Every structure is written in C-alpha cells, then in structure tokens.
Amino acid sequence: MTEKWVYLFREGNAELRTLLGGKGANLAEMTRAGLPVPPGFTITTEACNAFYEANQTLTDELMEQVWAALKQLEADTGKTFGNPIQPLLVSVRSGSVYSMPGMMDTILNLGLNDDTVEGLAKLTGNPRFAYDCYRRFIQMFGDVVMGVDHYHFERIIQKQKEIRGVSLDTELTAEDWIQVIQQFKDCIATHTREIFPQDPYEQLKKAIRAVFLSWNNQRAQIYRKIHQIPDHLGTAVNIQLMVFGNMGENSGTGVAFTRNPSTGEKELYGEFLMNAQGEDVVAGVRTPEPIAELKKHMPKVYQEFQEICQRLEQHYRDMQDIEFTIESGKLYILQTRSGKRTAQAAVKIACQMVEEGLIDRKEALLRIEPEQLDQMLHPRLDTNVESNVIAKGLPASPGAASGQIVFDADDAEYLAKQGNKVILVRPETTPEDIHGILAAQGILTSRGGMTSHAAVVARGMGKACICGCEQIKIDLHKKEMTVGTLTLKEGDLITIDGSTGQVIDGEVPLIEPTLSSEFRQILDWADEVRRLRVRANADNPEDAAKARELGAEGIGLCRTEHMFMEPSRVPIVQTMILAETREEREEALRQLLPLQKEDFKGIFKAMDGLPVNIRLLDPPLHEFLPNAEELAVEIAKMQMDDQTDQMELKRKQALLKKVRNLQEFNPMLGHRGCRLGIIHPEIYAMQVEAIFLAAIECKREGIRVEPEIMIPLVGHVNELKLMRELVDEVAGRIQEETGEKIAYTVGTMIEVPRAAITAQEIANEADFFSFGTNDLTQTTFGYSRDDAEGKFLHAYVDNKILPDNPFITLDTEGVGALVRMGVEEGRKTKPKLKTGICGEHGGEKRSIQFCHRVGLDYVSCSPYRVPLARLSAAQAVL
Ligand code: PEP
Ligand code: MG
C-alpha cells in the first residue's frame, strides 16, 4: 500500500501533530471544530524526510496525491487552478512540529499568472488589488523559489514611486503595478536566466520544493540549535485557499494572543492592519494598530473574533497565538498555536489557568520551561538613578540591558565574542539577524510591532527588546542613530528597558528583580512533587544568602580556593607556598587561619540549620603565583635599573625559581586535589581547624551547623583514608580543646573515572559522594576543560560528532554511566550513602533529570539556577 503523504484539513486532527506539523494539525482541528478556516490540505513531515532521502526530489507518488487533493480543493471552493474566470489561489506555508516563527519560507497568492490576474481583477472589480497581489506573488516566488534577493524587487518599487512622486506603496495604481510586474519578470530573467513560470502547477511544485528546502536554511538550523529542536523532524507544507486582507477598506489582517504574552495579563492582545496581507504585519514594515481598535472599525467582526479566541483557548487549554484575515467583512482564522511568551507571562498564565480550573498543577509545572525561571531572575533598571530617557518604543520583551550600540548582526556577534556587551539596533529585525540577537544583551528596532519575528525570538530567549521605536532614525551606512538633535554612534553606550520600552542614553545601574507571587507559587508546587534536593555552589555569605532566598537547601560545594584568591590574602598564600621549611609554611598558615575561620562563619550563619559542604583546597598551587613570563620581564627591567632594591630583586628571583619549579605540563592532571593535602598536610589541617573553630563559635551563638568536609580528586581509596584520618584527628583535637561536639561527615568528590569504578571500596571511607562532573567529563573524555571549547568542541557539536557540549549537558552514556556506576557501587557498601552532583550539570535541566533517574539525593548549582533546578527536579518526577 502506498503511504499517505497528503491530508485534507478535514482528515486530520490535533493528535497528528508529528505528521502534520503544528500548523497543519491545528488547521485540521479547527476545521473539525467548525471554525471559519479557509479549506486546504497538508503535505506531511514524512514527505519532507522522504524528499531529502530521495536526493531532494518530489516523487511522482507524492505529486499524484498533491494533485488529487488540489482537485478536491477545487471541488470544495468552486474555483479552478489556472482558470481565468474563477481562479483558485493558494498560500503555501511551512509548518514544523515545533513552531519556528519566520525561520522557514512562505509563498502567498500562488496560482496567479498573466491570465488569472485579469480574472481576479474582474471578479473583485478591483484591478489595483489584483495586480498588487500578482506583484507580491512574483516578489515572494522570485525571492524564495528562484533565489533573487528581495532587495532587487524593493528597488524597482522604490524607483516606480520616485517616478510617480509618491511615498507609499498604497499610492501606486494598477498601471504602476503592471509596469512593476514587467520589471520584476525581467529582473528574475536577468538574475536567474529563467522565466518566471506561468503554469500554476509548475509554480506549486516549485513552491513545495522550496518550502522543504527551507527546513535546512541557515536561520532555521540556528533556531533549531538554540531551541534544541531535532533536525530530523522535517517540515510539513500547508496549501490553503487564499483569503484576502488587502481587498479594500473592509478587509484586513492581524495577529492576536488570547492573553498578554509579555505580562500574562488576561486580555486580548495583538495588532492588525486594515487593507493588508499577512506579511505586512509580521514583517514589521508598516506599524500596525492595537487589536482593540478593531472594535471601532468592525464591531461585529471584533465580537466574533473575541468569541473564537475564547473558544480556542478553552479547547487547547493554553494561551493561543491566532492569525486572522478579514476578507470583505468576513472573518477567517488562518492559524492558531500555543503562543510564545516571556517567562513572567508563562508563570502567571500557568497559575491563572490552575485557578480557572483549565489545567491542574502538574500540567502547570510542565508548561514552564525551567530556563524561563532563570530569565526571571535577570536585572532591571534602578529607578532611583536619574536616567536620560531619549525615546520610547514598544516594550517587546522585558528585562533591562546596557551595552554598546551595534547596527549589524555580524558586528554584534564579533564584538560579543571579544567580551563586549552590545545592544543590537536595527530599523527592523528579520530572521536573518538571529545570530546577532543571540550575541546581544538586548535589541532595539525603530519599526515593527510586538509580533515582529525578532520580538518573538527575543522573548523566547529572555532578552530585553524594544520594537517600533519610531523616534529614532537609523543610518546604517554611517553607523549612527539620531533622536531629535542627539546623535549616537556605533560603540556609544545605551540602556534599554524592555519592560517599559524606554531607551536611555548611557549606562544605567541595574538591580536584582523581585520575585512575583506566581513565581513562588510554581516553585512551591515543584517542591511538593520533587524528590531530588537542591543545593547551591557558593563560597561566600552573600551568595549563600542569595541561594537560600531562591530555595537552596544547603551548600553542595564551597570551593575554598576562592577564599585564597582574595587580593589581600594572595601575599600570605604566596608566602605559604614559597616557604622553604614546614615552620615557615605553618607561620603563613597561622595567618590564614583566622581569615578562613571568618569565611566559614559567614557561610554557616547564612545556612543556619542546613548542611554546608566544604571542599578542601583543590587547584594546583601555581594558580596562586604570578605568571612566570611576566615575572621574568619584570626582573630583567629591575636588573637594568641602578636604583633597584637588591633585596627585592633577590626575592623576585627566588620567586621566579619557585614558580618555575611548580610549573607543570598538565596542571589539571598534576599536583592538585587531595594530592596537595597528602604532600602538604598542614594546608588541609589549617582548613579543617578553621572549619571546626568556626562551627564551634557559631554553635555557641545558637546557630545550627552541619559541616560536610569534602576531599577532592580522589582516585584511590588510600588517598581518602589518609585524608579522612587527618580530618578526624584535627576535628578531634579542636573538639577536645574546646569541649564542644560538632556532628560532621567526611566524604569525597567522584571526579576521576577510577573513583567511580572503585566506588564500592571508596565508600568504606566516605560518608557521602559528590560527583564533580566538570572534572569527570574532562577525565572521561580526555578533553581539557579549559581548552576544548575554544579549540574543537564547537566544531564537534556543529558537525554532530557529539550531540551536545558535554561540559554543559551531561553525557549520559559515558560520563553518566560512570555516575550511575559510582552510585550503585557505593551503595553496595553503604546502602544509605548520600550522593549529589556539584559540577555545572547540576544546574542544567536534562542533566538534572538524569540525576533523578540514577537516584542521586541532591543536585547543587549556582545560586541563580536554584529555581530552575527545583522545577527540573519536579518535572523529572511528572
Ligand atoms: C567538578 O569538577 O565538577 C567540580 C565541581 O569541581 P571544580 O569545577 O571546582 O573542579
Ligand atoms: Mg573538580
């Protein structure tokens, strides 16, 4: 039996999303529900994949099914393809399983040619409209199918306007468009050496092919990568009867959301343009009117639209993004889909819908992308600081951002790579700017509405964005923008506030966001269902307090080396490292002791009543010393200077010798971690003493302390055994001297493969395991964590040698297998062995879900990722 590649809208339904794509499935569902949807049919995503498998050819079998569906469409509409009296005109649109706004291609008005255009003119009694449609079709077809840059077409229109002395497209007459059409055809012939096809069947076949090909255009590929949409899904193609929003003053087209996609407020939200076609709204060329204005233009249509919006929202139980067209006073729904929304809106809508009884809590938790919670923690403007507001546009995506102005997506990408913060400023944003949007802190456009593509994309990424800021005039050529008398050039600093639409001259301080009650509500629900505990990685009291505020249930990793790196302590640390004798070293350590003790006290206080996992010193010692090359240059200069203090010179020379002695070929595999503690036990002894003195002082102040002492980089049980003895000995001594008892545990990081493999043995000496998946990834793959990303890892991911960057998303098959093994082996020795993760993966959604599956007790991540981790842990259960 031959496969079914084509479905009439009335044959499909919402369940067939994978096959029909989101748009196709929704059109089918709406058709079934009796909504006013123009008829049509969908070519499946499987047909797209078959197209690629067949070397990018449209098979006869597929095309036979397309022609059959087209016959049916003709029968349903009473119109005929290519017939000059009753011409059937269609739109051809992409539609993948996941919405990818504007990333793929669309062709409207297909079926027009030199004959049918006249038919359309007669039929509508409006030749201007008919020729306008025809030129739009040639323009789109020329661009999308035949590859002629749309710029050439725009130039022809511009010239025609100049000849006629008018400034708007709408001022051009039918005769003007007839001339433009001839020039368009010539332009296509010149650029492609092909004739614009007159045969509608040929037009359709070519259009289908172009839409399939657009699945793999560059911007679609980038979008899929950012949103983790698999490449193998393919796109469906929807072929639908054209309805015309540009048929006159009682026609129009627009887009609306059933709730406000920025704030989540329950209100119809959107915009429309009278006498226009869809692309006019979406492309952001003309600035549309707010949807509420439609009520004034056409009260009846507005009411019908409102009712349909409500019905659709109830039906899909989610906020909808609806495209509509009014043709001569009749309303058509062209598309509905779950609307993209900001993090803030997602959280608010989910809570509201639970309250309205539309969805349950579980559904609400699953509706929120954990990354979105992270976005909500982003900064906003400090309103106490005077700021020079220079313009106001549409608040397209909330959050504030400051940076240097750049006018080009490539420049934005380049400068951001150099470590600069940039604001991408464009007249209008197009999907081609996506890499610039990705690189920028925020986006500002002078034209376009809230539903322009880049606004949608920015919201999805949680970037601040202002659209349609018409007061600013941008000169791309000179790379400058003017507002009134003020001129700002590339590189000048501005601040944008995507929540209010304000554009501000210069840099404005940003402050931390406050969390909405809905944000807390969602996280409370998450806490009710999750099994994994969530801790934070923090090395100072401020971070610890922040983490606790965001819901951390303890510290999973306190990296004590960060305390050593504080500038005022570095000289003491250096003396400690450079000491020739044990006594000398101990003297430096004695100076460090009270400082470390205060550090720990601050953290214990912030974490009163919660466990605090402190890791003893881990990095190679030379990290605390000056750079050898720089030091050598400095010495050379001193030697040439008669005034040089000879003692100081000698000290520097000794220092250089020591630095060189400590240098290693592979420092990450060298003298670090517990290897340091074993060779220099006095360092670890000082740290343990500081921990216990701090714990005891805190205890005496009524603070409940729960220290966990962690030994890094253990690969052999004997290493841990030795270090555990050291900890117990110092702890015992301090407790005896002070007469106080502190309950504590000693455990190890599992961050080299041997530790995971021999976990059963290691567990004999450990009260807990914490998987250091940064190092475990480094040592399992044999990739240097400091070099791999810049050198080859990007290419590995781009070329799909690896599915993901393993330093971001846990490699479950390799590194993850070792984690699983470590847990299982360790629990053979101690069934209740506490296990956690403290590598960066502890704050990444998919990795967290893996941690849940392998039965870890907790994840630990940076403070700001704690909410994300709480939600991910809940989703892992659901
Ligand atoms: C790790 O290796 O995963 C870890 C948490 O330790 P660090 O990143 O400090 O090496
Ligand atoms: Mg490590």
TrEMBL record:
Task: Cite the binding residues for Mg(2+).
Answer: 751, 775
Q: What is the lineage of its organism?
A: Bacteria, Bacillati, Bacillota, Bacilli, Bacillales
State its Enzyme Commission number(s).
Answer: 2.7.9.1
Q: Which domain of life is it from?
A: Bacteria
The family database entries (Pfam families) matched by this protein are listed as:
PEP-utilizers, PEP-utilizers_C, PPDK_N
Q: Which family is it part of?
A: Belongs to the PEP-utilizing enzyme family.
Q: Which residues form the PEP-utilising enzyme C-terminal domain?
A: 517-876
Could you say which residues bind substrate here?
559, 615, 751, 772-775
Which InterPro entries does this entry report, sorted A to Z?
Answer: ATP_grasp_subdomain_1, PEP-util_enz_mobile_dom, PEP_util_AS, PEP_util_C, PEP_util_CS, Phosphohistidine_dom_sf, PPDK_AMP/ATP-bd, Pyruvate_phosphate_dikinase
Question: Any idea where the Pyruvate phosphate dikinase AMP/ATP-binding domain is?
Answer: 19-56, 58-296, 303-356
Q: Which NCBIfam families does this one have? A: PRK05878.1, pyru_phos_dikin
Entry protein name: Pyruvate, phosphate dikinase
